[in-house]
Write a structure and sequence with these properties.
Rossmann fold, Elongation Factor Tu (Ef-tu), domain 3
């Protein structure tokens, strides 16, 4: 094995004073960076070289690396540094990076966490995940190939995610004879592209990751290059002062109340600095107070800055909860519930406009709906394309509507307050991530108008408990028939009712909607909102819709008050529903004449815990209606 030319300087404190060394190591600054670029540009090799030269691998790891290099390496038996990072079997077999690999190493000056991100387009979401916490980016370019489509795509994502410290590492210079002309040509081409996507400055470094040239020391092979080697650039990148110079922001993670005499608000400072006596504002409430103490485990501080986790106590007893933001009173963030945002979609199931998701921004989680995208971006060409929804790995711009206002800064100003993730409410999967641009003007102009006559008063005037009885089941299950019989039974008792039927509503309110998954989501969203208005009017609303997706039925439930939503699952097997196919719809669907038909080529998600389940193979429609009536009569006091 060849001994590396560069030997990393090891602090003399290790041998002289281990406690002093550990203290110094603990207080080193931390830089998070990622590597990205086209396939085979040398990302994993570069990280492996950094780990190797910084002595961050153990003897047994080195022995395993040597053995693996002989078995599956790509360097003819010599050390293949990429194997230090590409740990998945599929990665080694194919010689590519698939998932994000995180590695730690350190020098006397700084600690580092590096994310090795995939180069393939189908792993865009993995690359975005790795970039979301990065302070800097190394974009590798193969000197033989120059700027490629994947180089442009990853550069666009780096710019999109607000990474302002960028190295363009022009690798494999040894394979082009260390040609300055080649280097200059690639830099000029990249500079033109960078200007288009908002990368204002970058540092270009010629290197050979495999040979170690310009990685940790200046290389004699590039006398025409006077800039720093890569490691020195990483050690000196001025990333930490960025957040400390911005206005103070701290999302509240926890209300700290160990006893009756102490009440503090704990969290990590996202930006700025804070001192006792500073005036702060709690958002979204807007209440103000003054910082009394900055409490930590080791004692009170006279000042705290971005990146530190602290507990603040306030001079006044104001209401502050988890998810709120404490901010400097003179420069608070905005508060809104509707935004324009860029969304990167992660999930194999597409983003469906109108479907309710959970949005987590900082420490706050609220329900959110995404409107139909304004456009999606072809990250290879930067074209803006029309889109009805977003598929996996696609990026688009759309409006968001939240169930409650949040405090935010634009992502370009503050990643912690401007970034968010989207979570599927049923499966709890993280399905997307995004960046807030600005609040929509209508969110500032539209306010809730209080009314003197309440829902309770309207219900009392009608002598009934207002609610929604939501019938769901396959086409032909008998939903509309049972709902019609139930309404007749209720009307005979003098109840005030209204039935919203799927077919009838599509003649008017929803006549513009088709039967794609996205249209079905919007269909149910609109009906759920109308149902809420009718319940507010004091009515008993019977809703008869296939409503195939659990997420939208849950949305309808969430819009209403406690025990105001009654889900009735009209449980009819598919074979039985087809036998009753009086409209001939199943037959057309089987022939391919009707697309997106529930139960045939579009899924139906049966309720898991409905309030009422009707087995239509065992009950007649009249018996089913009577069973529901009896349930309603006995479920609430006084009566229906």
């Amino acid at each position: 094995m060849a001994v590396p030319k560069f030997e990393m300087q090891v602090s003399d404190l290790i041998s002289e004073d281990i406690e002093a060394y550990l203290h110094a190591h603990q207080h080193k600054s931390m830089l998070r960076f990622l590597t990205c670029g086209s396939v085979d540009d040398g990302k994993s090799t570069l990280i492996g070289r950094l780990l190797y030269d910084s002595k961050m691998i153990f003897e047994d790891q080195l022995a395993a690396l040597e053995a693996d290099s002989k078995k599956v390496g790509t360097q003819g038996g010599d050390i293949d540094f990429a194997l230090l990072v590409d740990g998945l079997a599929a990665e080694r077999e194919q010689g590519i990076t698939i998932d994000v690999a995180y590695r730690f190493f350190s020098t006397d000056k700084r600690k580092f966490i590096v994310a090795d991100t995939p180069g393939h387009e189908q792993y865009t979401r993995n690359m975005v995940t790795g970039a979301s916490t990065a302070d800097a980016a190394i974009i590798l370019i193969d000197a033989r190939k120059g700027v490629l489509t994947q180089t442009r795509r990853h550069s666009y994502l780096v710019s999109l995610l607000g990474i302002r410290h960028v190295v363009v590492a022009i690798n494999k210079m040894d394979l082009v004879g260390w040609s300055q002309e080649t280097f200059d040509r690639i830099v000029a081409e990249y500079r033109d592209f960078a200007a288009q996507i908002g990368i204002k400055a970058f540092t270009a470094i010629p290197m050979s990751a495999l040979k170690g040239d310009n990685i940790t020391e200046p290389s004699e092979k590039s006398p025409w290059y006077s800039g720093p080697p890569l490691l020195r650039w990483l050690e000196d990148a001025p990333v930490e002062d960025d957040l400390q110079t911005k206005p103070f922001r701290m999302p509240v993670q926890w209300v700290n109340r160990p006893d009756l005499d102490f009440r503090g608000f704990s969290g990590q400072i996202a930006s700025g600095s804070i001192k006792p006596g500073d005036k702060v504002k709690a958002l979204p409430s807007g209440r103000e107070s003054t910082v009394a103490r900055i409490v930590t485990f080791t004692g009170d501080l006279t000042e705290a800055v971005a990146g530190q986790s602290v507990t603040l106590t306030l001079a006044d007893e104001i209401d502050v909860s988890r998810g709120d933001v404490l901010a400097v009173a003179s420069q608070p963030p905005e508060v809104a519930d509707q935004f324009e945002a860029t969304i990167v979609w992660f999930d194999e199931e597409p983003l469906l406009p109108g479907r309710p998701y959970l949005l987590k921004a900082g420490t706050r989680t609220v329900q959110a709906q995404v409107a139909e995208p304004k456009f999606k971006v072809n990250v290879n060409t930067l074209e803006k394309l029309a889109a009805k929804r977003l598929e996996v790995n696609e990026i688009g711009v759309a409006n968001l509507s939240l169930a409650a206002p949040i405090a935010f800064d634009a992502y370009g100003e503050n990643k912690d307050l401007g970034g968010f993730i989207l979570i599927d409410r049923i499966t709890n999967r993280t399905v997307g991530a995004g960046m807030l641009h600005f609040a929509l003007r209508r969110s500032q102009n539209i306010h809730w108008q209080a009314m003197d006559v309440s829902k309770a008063a309207r219900s009392a005037a009608k002598g009934q408990k207002a609610r929604v009885v939501w019938f769901t089941g396959l086409s032909g299950s008998g939903k509309s028939t049972i709902a019609n019989l139930l309404e007749k039974r209720l009307a005979a008792q003098g109840r005030h009712t209204y039935t919203l039927d799927g077919d009838n509503v599509r003649h008017g309110l929803n006549r513009d909607l088709g039967f794609t998954d996205a249209d079905r989501v919007e269909n149910i969203r609109r009906v759920a909102e109308v149902s809420r208005l009718m319940v507010d009017a004091g009515l008993i609303v019977l809703v008869s819709f296939i409503s195939p997706f659990r997420a939208e039925r849950q949305l309808a439930r969430d819009l209403l008050g406690e025990r105001e939503f009654v889900e009735v699952f009209v449980d009819t097997p598919l074979a039985e529903a087809e036998k009753r196919d009086v409209k001939g719809l199943y037959a057309k669907a089987r022939k391919g004449e009707l697309k997106n038909f529930t139960g045939i080529d579009s899924p139906y998600e049966a309720p898991e815990t409905p309030e009422i389940r009707i087995d239509t193979t065992a009950l007649t429609p009249e018996q089913a209606a009577e069973q529901i009536f009896a349930w309603l009569e006995g479920a609430f006091d006084p009566g229906i």
